[in-house]
Specification:
mainly alpha, 229 residues
């Protein structure tokens, strides 16, 4: 990414800064949800550590992806693949682990939560990365600024949501529905898959996200049913 901050006028520079801050506040919401849902499966004393490690790992990957943002745009089926990856992650976050009690007190629990956080965060950050890269007008400093702004937003939001989910379990279901909607929206936003689906059925633009939400919420119940029997 070329560095041409000097070519920006002072006015356009501050417009870009404000645009990046606003986009981070809007787009970081679903990232905070998935981090909170992954961390809630850990004891309170380990949740903050998982959030910090997971967010740090996700930010490092975001930096790499942001630098090659132009190349990311040319990858076919990228958003559809990201949406499909996000579906089992959302289902997994609603499923209680069989060995949850044992894992909660070992490094395995943190490792699993961090892996989930990084994968899901990177998948859901595609739009965020491209939006920030566009608002930065090619300025590497503004790109780094955008990433720096997103860190406290995501970590602070994740910490708050994780605590709220522990007190209000229905928020977990709401969070899973949000992830399902995000996955469905990514599939529809894909230039190849989305265009094909909407050409077959114009209502697919809202029907696909709705069906994915239902799938995410129903699958954990279906998977738990044999164990209940």
């Amino acid at each position: 990414m070329e560095f041409h901050l000097a070519e920006l006028t002072q006015w356009s520079f501050w417009v870009s800064v404000l645009s990046i801050i606003m986009m981070d506040m809007v787009l970081a919401g679903d990232n905070a949800v998935v981090i909170a849902m992954a961390a809630r499966q850990l004891p309170v004393r380990l949740q903050q550590r998982a959030i910090l490690i997971g967010a740090a790992g996700a930010v490092l990957v975001r930096i790499v992806l942001t630098v090659i943002a132009a190349e990311i745009l040319t990858v076919p089926l990228l958003q559809a693949a990201g949406g499909l990856i996000l579906i089992p992650i959302a289902v997994k976050l609603l499923l209680p682990k069989r060995d949850e009690i044992r894992e909660k007190h070992t490094d395995g629990g943190i490792r699993s939560a961090v892996q989930t956080i990084i994968i899901a965060d990177v998948v859901m950050s595609l739009d965020n990365i491209l939006a920030v890269a566009g608002a930065a007008h090619g300025s590497f400093i503004l790109v780094i600024f955008g990433l720096a702004v997103s860190i406290p937003i995501v970590i602070g939001g994740s910490t708050l949501l994780s605590r709220l989910m522990s007190r209000f379990p229905w928020l977990v279901t709401l969070g899973a529905a949000i992830l399902g909607y995000t996955a469905g929206s990514m599939i529809i936003a894909d230039r190849i898959v989305g265009t094909y689906l909407t050409s077959l059925l114009p209502a697919a633009s809202w029907l696909v996200p709705l069906l994915v939400i239902v799938l995410v919420l129903v699958m954990p119940q279906a998977l738990r049913y044999p164990h209940r029997r």
